[in-house]
Amino acid sequence: MSEHVLTRIANRTGIITLDRPKALNSLSLDMVRALTAILLDWQLDAAVDAVVITSSSEKALCAGGDIRFFHDVGNASPQGGSALLEDFFTEEYALNHLIHFYPKPYIALMDGVVMGGGMGIAQGGPDCGLRIVTERTKMAMPEVNIGLFPDVGGSHFLSHAPGQLGMFLGLTGLTIGAADALYVGLADVFVPSADLAALQALIEATPGADLPAAIRAFAIQHAGESELQANRARIDAHFGADSVAAIMASLEGDDTPFAQKALNAMRQRSPLMMCVTRELLLRGASLDVADCLRLERLLVRRNFEHGEVLEGVRALVIDKDNAPQWNPPSLDLVTDAMVARFFAPVWPAHAHPLRHLA
Fold first, then answer.
1. Is the pTM of this model over 0.90?
2. Is 186 helix (H, G, I), strand (E, B) or coil?
3. What are phi and psi of 27, to 5 degrees?
4. Keyword Iron-sulfur, does the record have it (predicted)?
5. Which CATH number goes with the domain that contains 126?
6. Model confidence pLDDT, tens digit, residues 208-259
């Protein structure tokens, strides 16, 4: 078990508190294993009727996976390969699957930063669960900014967002707040941070089986105006283009601040991984959760072989020069063959590390 994952049971609700505040609760392999063990135990525990996941810090529920760990172990091995990396992504994605199909209400309090791997432990809850946002919520799938792609089930929940909203979020990696999260369908209810103490008291006082309904009655459904809703037609028009290059060309012809912000973000992202992300989301739209996670697991292996994420993490958090040397360096040099290689099978179906996901 991890020292950064705390648990207790209150009124038949299992409460998980992530407690790695200095790293914004970035997930380590130990944390992934602890979360998996806890949820496997509680799903069979007749004394637990619901699960709440929260944080000891108002700054973040979870900022993602531990990308320093990715960089260190990836660079220590030929072609970015490492048994620890293999274990991390296999076990993280299996955890995302477990949460998605959890047999009891799973309630995520998405206060503060919720990005990447944090989305994986918040978005995957069952239909009977709840995703709570506050005015402090900073939500994103920013993987293209570090030379990766939207994983942890992102190929499923982004590709199933209305219209081209998921493509917009996946290709730009931009951060959204509570109102946009509710509009996209990545959150269910809004609770102002000033009411979180009262929410905690409600959780403690309500039997687990009644908790989702009680929180819905307590919460506020409206979190203000959604910028994505206001720009929905623009997003669908631009991001429905038939290639990343066409999307960017379309944005170049739109001088609104919203379009130019999206374009400037994409100009900083990995050209190759934007193209891979677009293809991933197109494929994910017709796949179930298990197959999306299996596909993402394949792409992770290909990505570390290529080294794009190692360079992205170096530039962002190791050297902090914010000048990644993407390979290839520009969109016009990305070929269909480069993208196709990411989707070429690594394992036969019977040997896939996530072959047992149902």
1. yes
2. coil
3. -80, 125
4. no
5. 3.90.226.10
6. 999 999 999 999 878 899 999 999 999 999 999 999 999 999 999 999 999 9
